[in-house]
Design brief:
heterodimer; A: alpha+beta; Multidrug efflux transporter AcrB transmembrane fold; Gyrase A, domain 2; 3 domains; 4-stranded antiparallel β-sheet; 19 strands; 54% helix; 22% strand; elongated; B: 305 residues; alpha+beta; 10 helices
């Protein structure tokens, strides 16, 4: 018995020491280098509700990515039909992922074209509507649709990650949630508004020609020429702050997009000291740009970002070398933001902020300070109360309680868990149950003593009886915690994690550690009267 | 030290005719208040909407903030003082689409209106209606499934369905009463309150199991006594522990209530109600349910066999 006491002591002491070593990195970052080499330096992170920061959930409109893909296929199909001399009346996109054709001529010709080059399209219906004209409805097959959606989401995640990295946030967290949502956590961020506009921006850069022949006046009245669209340029008057919108009549066809960008830098105009953005294209982009500018000298080329015209300079000559500029009356902040989004690339689908939680840094500090003060007060009161009520045994219980908290923090640090307000609630509950476990044991020992048992027998019986109670009550709660973790979301999960580990630590400290101390003082120190 | 003398015999179970009325009235009041108020007052977390906590650098009257909100056309905005000086909560409960843009607009126009001041956005929450519903649905499922798991585990450990049932009925009672108190005090049902409900569930089931466990032990020892007496003895035997544990936890929660600050205030209030209900329900809900079940359902089955 005495030998096993020593072995138990070594085991318990080792666990305790290890827990303290694991917990230390959370308290201080100034640790000697040998320490960080041997001991995992994972820390407990404070949740955004305690630390301050912004939590965003974005919903990607992946259907839009499918739409634009089908739109591209439609345009290709239109060109192909023309090229192969198949007379086509109507070629339109419908319901997002369908293309409706009205074509005539030889049936084999178009069937060959469709099966050869458009195998991802499935024929939904096909009927002759008279006069040798066939109306064919094609739909993008479901596997391809899913693939596009998935790619769009992955790409959106990647793009947002790049943007956030460039914005400079320490330890951001950007993850997929479910099938169409992106969770973004930005701890300690100072300007959430700017971060949001940076992240949420589609940043689709397009180059389109201005329709020089079309009549803008007529178009504004509603008679937009076939194949043209109207887009606007927003001009802010620096004196009044008023916004003026200048309309442009543009060719709908996009000649080039931001996909071919290699770099985008903010620079200062040497003449007017206004910031502009210098674009640099990759090899393909450079060639394309040379071709486009070469073929359209003296015409205007509109530079469009997210359906806003930024500028529409006249092409003076063929431009080789793959460089262009976006000018406009930018503030330095605006220009920097544009630089970031252009470098990181466009989002393949627009995103919408469906949830935002921002906690200002001072509020986080306030709630931590008040929380810590009240937890400290309660801890001190519990410790004093236990000693007052149970004397020496109360001291033993207090040691177990302190150890319990250290163990939980050690595990949380090891798991790199995030401590949130609901997490603290779980911790408080588990500490409450630890106090309860100690009270259960002590009351039981007292009862056994009252029935005239010896100290040793009372301790044995007390632990034995209380153990079933503690296991049953704690296990029931653990089971609940596991279910809450499995099926709950964010806050419910945070609660479940601390509760689970709190109770696990509780069983160890309240049952095994205190038992060792009781055994030690009765067997080794041979005390005659138990102070309980 | 001894809080409760040994061989104390309060007749807890004997009072059940009286306490059934207490429980019934508590539940009726709770449900009545919830129905009267047209359901719980869902916070932005669940209902969707905007919540802004703004601190002004100089003194501002609440009416000025209200006027400012009305001037920008947000008539449905609720403005209330919060915590320290010059700090306000602005709340818009709405399921409309572009809440995010709306929140941005409110911030800029407030800044414009109170030009000489610095506005500190202490907290901003924008929750789309779909997100809130998702959150609520998932939380509800998690709680229901954990109830089921508790029922099965307790029934298995105590080898009687009635014990599992007693525990769960007590939990349902506690949850209803806590929601009722929330509704009567006209507090908002938020994520923090959800965390409290979970805590109460944990505490209440713990309390119930401790007494059931003693009953299980005494049933083996006292073969001659009827179950009602055994319950009474067991409750009395564990009374010291019940008072000590509940007392300690209550002390902690009271400290949170008085010193925890405004963010924790509602949290602590709900916890106080839940703790009282959780301790009460062990004796006056869980135990009678077991007794009634064993008396009518189990015995009836045995006789018919």
């Amino acid at each position: 018995m005495l030998r096993s006491l020593r072995w138990k002591f070594i085991l318990y002491a080792a666990i305790t020491l290890f827990a303290i070593l694991l917990f230390l990195p959370t308290l201080t970052s100034q640790l000697p280098s040998w320490y960080t080499k041997v001991i995992p330096t994972e820390k407990i992170h404070l949740g955004l509700d305690l630390q301050g920061g912004t939590h965003l959930i974005l919903e990607a409109e992946a259907d839009k990515a499918v739409e634009s893909y089908v739109e591209r296929i439609k345009n290709n199909l239109k060109d192909d039909l023309k090229e192969r001399g198949i007379p086509a009346g109507k070629v339109e996109r419908e319901k997002g992922n369908q293309i409706v054709l009205e074509i005539s001529g030889e049936k084999e010709k178009w069937e060959k074209l469709l099966s050869e080059r458009y195998s991802t399209l499935q024929e939904l219906s096909s009927s002759e509507i008279g006069g040798g004209i066939w109306r064919i409805t094609l739909v993008l097959d479901s596997r391809q649709t899913e693939q596009i959606k998935k790619n769009a989401l992955d790409q959106a995640l990647e793009t947002i990650r790049k943007r956030v990295d460039q914005f400079g946030v320490s330890e951001p967290e950007i993850t997929l949630q479910g099938t169409d949502r992106i969770l973004i956590q930005l701890p300690g961020i100072k300007d959430p508004q700017r971060a949001k506009s940076l992240i949420g921006r589609t940043a689709l850069l397009e180059f389109k020609l201005v329709d020089e022949e079309g009549d803008l006046e007529e178009a504004l009245k509603g008679n937009v020429p076939e194949g043209d669209i109207i887009l606007y340029q927003r001009v802010v008057d620096p004196k009044t702050g008023g916004v003026k919108k200048i309309p442009y009549l543009l060719k709908e066809k996009t000649l080039m997009t931001g996909e071919v960008l290699k770099d985008a830098r903010v620079a200062l105009d040497s003449q007017f000291h206004e910031p502009y953005i210098g674009l640099e294209f990759d090899d393909i982009g450079a060639k394309l740009f040379e071709q486009i500018t070469g073929a359209n000298v003296k015409k205007r080329l509109a530079i469009i970002l997210d359906d806003n015209v930024y500028s529409a300079p006249v092409i003076q000559e063929r431009i080789a070398g793959g460089r262009a500029q976006i000018t406009g009356r930018f503030t330095t902040d605006e220009a920097n933001e544009l630089g970031i989004v252009l470098r990181a690339g466009a989002l393949p689908a627009p995103v919408k902020v469906i949830e935002e939680r921002t906690v200002g840094p001072t509020l986080g500090q306030d709630s931590i300070r008040q929380g810590i003060i009240s937890i400290l007060i309660s801890a001190v009161l519990i410790v004093i109360f236990m000693i007052f009520y149970y004397r020496l045994s109360g001291v033993i219980a207090d040691i177990a309680l302190v150890l319990n908290v250290i163990l939980v923090f050690a595990v949380l640090a090891l798991l790199r868990a995030t401590l949130t307000l609901p997490g603290i609630a779980g911790l408080v509950l588990s500490v409450g149950m630890a106090v309860d476990a100690n009270i259960l044991i002590h009351e039981r020992i007292k009862e056994e003593l009252r029935w005239g048992k010896t100290i040793r027998a009372a301790i044995d019986q007390g632990y034995h009886r209380a153990f079933t109670t503690i296991i049953d009550s704690n296990l029931t709660t653990v089971i609940a915690a596991v279910f809450l973790y499995q099926f709950g979301t964010g806050p419910v999960k945070g609660f479940a994690v601390t509760l689970f580990w709190g109770i696990t630590a509780n069983i160890f400290t309240a049952v095994f550690i205190t038992r060792w101390v009781f055994d030690y003082i009765t067997l080794k120190l041979k005390i005659k009267k138990l102070s309980i | 030290m001894e809080l409760i003398r040994p061989n104390t015999r309060f007749d807890f179970i004997g009072k059940k005719k009286f306490t059934i009325w207490v429980s019934a009235i508590a539940i009726l009041l709770s449900l009545g208040s919830i129905i009267y108020h047209g359901g719980l007052r869902y916070g932005v977390d669940f209902a969707g909407g905007i919540l802004l906590q703004i601190k002004f650098s100089k003194a501002v009257e609440i009416s000025e903030v209200r006027n400012a909100m009305e001037a920008m056309g947000s008539k449905e905005a609720m403005v209330q003082k919060f915590g320290g000086e010059n700090e306000f909560l602005i709340r818009i409960e709405k399921g409309s689409e572009d809440l995010e843009a709306m929140s941005r607009q409110i911030q800029t126009s407030l800044q414009e209106r109170f030009k000489g001041q610095t506005l500190e956005i202490r907290r901003a929450e924008v929750v789309g209606p779909k997100v809130g519903k998702d959150l609520e649905r998932k939380a509800l499922w998690a709680v229901l499934l954990s109830f089921l798991a508790i029922l099965i585990y307790v029934a298995w450990r105590f080898k009687q369905v009635s014990y599992g049932l007693g525990g769960i009925v007590a939990l349902v009672h506690d949850v209803i009463v806590t929601y009722g108190a929330l509704s009567i005090a006209n507090l908002e049902y938020s994520l923090t309150v959800l965390a409290v409900i979970l805590t109460i569930i944990g505490f209440s089931i713990n309390d119930t199991i401790v007494i059931f466990d003693r009953v299980r032990e005494n049933v083996k020892k006292m073969r001659k006594e009827d179950l009602e007496t055994i319950f009474n003895i067991s409750i009395n035997e564990t009374l010291g522990r019940t008072i000590l544990t509940s007392g300690t936890v209550m002390m902690v929660v009271l400290i949170l209530f008085f010193f925890g600050g405004p963010v924790i205030h509602d949290f602590a209030f709900t916890l106080i109600v839940g703790l009282i209900s959780g301790t009460y329900s062990t004796v006056y809900i869980a135990s009678p349910v077991v007794l009634v079940w064993e008396k009518y359902v189990s015995k009836g089955r045995k006789r018919s066999r």
